[in-house]
Every structure is written in C-alpha cells, then in structure tokens.
Amino acid sequence: MAHADEAALFNKDESKVDWHDKALWFVRQKRDKSAHKVKGWETLRDLASAIKANVMSNLDNYLVQFEENAQKNGVTVHWAADAEEHNKIVHSILQQTNVKKVVKSKSMLTEECHLNPYLEANGIEVVDTDLGERIVQLAKEVPSHIVLPAIHKTKEEVDVLFQKHLGTKPSNGDPQYLTNEARKHLRDKFLKADAAITGVNFAVADTGGIVVCTNEGNADMGAHLAKVHIACMGMEKLIPQEKHLGIFLRLLARSATGQPITTYSSHFNKPAPGTEMHIVIVDNGRTEQLNREDFRASLHCIRCGACMNTCPIYRRSGGHSYKATIPGPIGSILSPGKDLTKHSDLPFASTLCGSCSDVCPVKINIHEQLYKWRQVIVKDVPQPVVKKTVLKIAGRVLANSKMYGFAGKSARFILKHAPRFVTYSKFNAWGEARDLPEVKDDNFDTWYKKRQKHE
Ligand code: SF4
After folding, report:
1. In terms of CB atoms within 10 Å, which of 10, 148, 207, 236 comes out highest?
2. Please, which residues bridge with residue 229 across strands?
3. Which residues does 40 contact at the CB level (< 8 Å), separation at least 6?
4. CA dihedral over 116, 119, 123, 128, signed as positive or negative
5. Could you tell me the superkingdom of the organism this chain comes from (predicted)?
6. Exposed, middle or buried, 221 (CB in 10 Å: 0-12/13-18/19+)?
7. What's the order of all strands across the beta sheet hosting 101-104?
8. Ligand 1, atom nearest to 304 Cα
9. Which of 28, 148, 251, 307 to mutate to test ligand 1, by most ligand atoms within 8 A of the CB atom?
10. How far apart are alpha carbons 234 and 287 in whole angstroms?
C-alpha cells in the first residue's frame, strides 16, 4: 500500500493519532527549550555540518585511518558491501565463538539489514535490550521511530503485551511497574548472553574507538558482560577526531529528546582482557548515495529523530506508514536511493514546510532534497495516467494568464452552485475531512483592481 493509504489506516483511530501527534510535539518542544539554552547553538550546527561534509569528501581516507587505529587497539574490523554480507559476517563471528544467545542494543543498521530474523533462522536467540525495541520485538513489529521505537504504542497496550509475554499482572498501564518488570526480564537475558551486538553513534578516525549513546545503559551492560562484542556501523558514522565528539554529543541528545546529554555516552576502544571486539563497517547503498551530489548530504544524518518529531505528516501518519527502516523526512530522502520504484511515494509525503531542515542538528537540506527526489521520480518512475494528464493540463493553465483567469472563474462558479454531493465526492480528498472555505465572487486580481479604482 502507498504511504497515503497506510496513513489513512493509522488515522482511523482518531484519539490515538491525536495522542501520537501531541507526544511527538512535546518532544519537539523539549528540543527547542534545550537548544535555546545553548549559546552558539547555530555555530554548533554549522560546525557539525562542515565536519560531516569534510568526512564525506574524504571518506576513503578516514575509513582506512579508522580501520588501522582500531586494529592497533586489538579490534577486528570487517567490511560488508551489503546487508547480506553484514548478516553473514555477524553470524560467522557468532559461530566461531560458539554463541547461541545474543543481547542487542538499539541499532537502526541491524534493522536495515534484517539481522534478527537472519540470526533467528540460524538458531540464535537475539534479544533487543532497549525497552522500546523490546516492546516492538515482543509485538513482532518493527520500530516506528528511530529514537522512540514504540512511540505508536500506548502504555495500556504495553501492559497487555507484557502480560502475554512476560507473565506480568494487569497494572492498567503503570509505567513504573512495567519498566521494573522489563528490567528483571532483561537482566536475566544479559546474564545469560554470550555476545552483545551494539550500534555505533560515532566512530572516531584518529583513535579507532567508537561511541554508543543510550539512555538505559543497555549497550554497556551487554558489552561488559559478554565475552564477544560486535559493533555494527554504517560507513558514514565517522568523525575525524575525538575533539569533534563535543560538538556532536551536545547536538545529538538535545535534538533527540531535549536532554543536555544522553545518559550513557560510552566509549569503546579495545576489547577487555579475555574478550573479543569486532566492528562491522557496512556500505549497503551508502556509496551510491555518496555519489549522488544532490542527495549526498543525507549521509550527514546522526539519527536524532528531530525531523520526525517536527514533521506534521509523520506525526499524523505514524512511522509504519513509510514502510521503510528509517521513516519520516530523513527516511523519505534515504529510501528512494535504495529502491526508487518501491519508495517513490515517500518524497510526496511532505508539505515541504521546511521544519525538518530547520531543526536538523547537522543542517541537512531535507525539504530541498524531498523536492529534488520528486523531480527525479516524475522523470524515472511511470506515473498514473490520471496524474500525468491532470498535471499536464494544470501546467498549461498555470502558464497562461487568460486560461488561468477563466479556470478560476469556472471553479468558483461550480463550487458555489454545484450540489454538495458533487463537491464533496470521493474525488475531492480535501473535502473528505473538512469543509472548503467560503467561495468568493472575485479573485484577488479583480478585488485589487476594484479597490484601486475606489481609492
Ligand atoms: S536528518 Fe537531521 S533531524 Fe533528521 S534524524 Fe537525521 S540528524 Fe536528526
């Protein structure tokens, strides 16, 4: 189903949509308050944007530098061209170390590669340890948001889910009780796991170390208890030097949740004695995106989720409606690069208001890229005949002032005099949920001329 149809389904539950909208707007407001407290916020954004642009222009060098330094630290570095290779590498590490139980902290890359089903099909238990991720894993769903994976679920729904899977008592959605129960359940999984998989927020080229940010400490708990730590990263996660972390860490937490700092910003540089540490660097279409000049900046993304929280379309259509691992505005410029035909509806799921670009901590020109993808799509993807014909006619009318004036006059007449069932038919999506504004007799041009005469 197209995004609009999925969104229509989500909109059937009006109270849930309102609540989803308000919850995300609340996070957006927290972000604003937190950002406004930082003097030089805009300078931080400029610096982050410039650093990321530098990384993308010299990615080959930084990647090699990072690999060399990580290897010097005793870390094994692997390279994966695509999702399949990534999954095979992770599986082979687990096989070689005889691992059967894995705990995993939040990693959108492993979602992108569909690692969980791959490992499960190979007889390995994978438990997501981020609370939101665990909720969607138990519900057999995928995250609907990159920072708040279960934001589409109410606490009452989580209550029912935990009763079914964790044997909890009915609590009427008491968040404290539910969190405590999840904590007990996950602690047992941490203690029994043989390996921990984490994502990577930042990979530092000049040290070979990685930084993983979580609010629950689950990445640390997993990596410190297990004998094998596998960190999976997209190749765009690099920053040149450790000193640059100060810029990105300040931007990330504030943009994501409005916190001054993520609760745990953990630095992993080398394996502890008696343990193994692996880093899997994944391309999976990133080189192609790097090659697209108009869309290269989409690789600057630090996955804070701010563009989703502010987007009026995302807030009222829900993350699952995008049918992509990364939903929302940033997903809508990344996904067409992976499969243009499949995701050709996503760049149109936007008002182009530009709010996403305004809040983006690394200043990605998201709304401009959405508009550029639209231009690519109308050229490269076959469009429905009706849409093509209507746009062709509209183009002619808009290019000719006489035709435009005549069309306006006719439309005003029809809207004023046609019976309601004609104006509010299924052909008028605008009128499905709202009344049209009152139709005036004159257009602006006529009104203006009359006013001039009068004066
Ligand atoms: S595009 Fe910008 S605002 Fe959106 S998730 Fe990425 S860094 Fe955050």
Report:
1. 236
2. 196, 277
3. none
4. negative
5. Bacteria
6. buried
7. 76-80, 276-282, 228-234, 195-198, 101-104, 125-128
8. 8
9. 307
10. 11
The string of pLDDT tens digits covering residues 20-56 is 999 999 999 999 999 999 999 999 999 999 999 999 9
* 371-416 pLDDT per residue, tens: 999 999 999 999 889 988 999 999 999 999 999 999 999 989 988 8
Give yes or no for residue 301 CB within 6 A of ligand 1.
yes
Mutate to test the pocket of ligand 1, among 364, 366, 369 (most ligand atoms within 8 A of CB): 364
Pocket lining: 290 vs ligand 1, CB cutoff 6 Å: no
pLDDT digits (tens, 9 = 90+) for 159-201: 999 999 999 999 999 999 999 999 999 999 999 999 999 999 9
For residue range 256-287, list pLDDT tens digits in order.
999 999 999 999 999 999 999 999 999 999 99
| Structure token pair of residue 77 | 């570095």
The Å distance, Cα 204 to ligand 1 centre, comes to: 20
Domain 55-284 has CATH 3.10.310.10: no
Distance CA 440, CA 447 (A): 10
* Residue 325 DSSP class: S
Take residue 101 and report the two structure tokens written for it: 């139980």
Closest Cα to atom 8 of ligand 1:
304
Boundaries of every domain in the chain: 1-37+301-382, 55-284, 391-454
Is residue 360 lining ligand 1, measured as CB closer than 6 Å? yes
Burial (0-12, 13-18, 19+ Cβ within 10 Å), 166 = middle
User: Residue 266 corresponds to which amino acid?
Assistant: S
Nearest to 93 by CA among 231, 268, 191: 231
Q: List the structure tokens of 432.
A: 């499905």
Closest ligand 1 atom to residue 305 Cα is 5
- If you search the block for the tokens 């990979």, which residue do you land on? 203
Gap between the Cα atoms of 309 and 329, Å rounded: 10
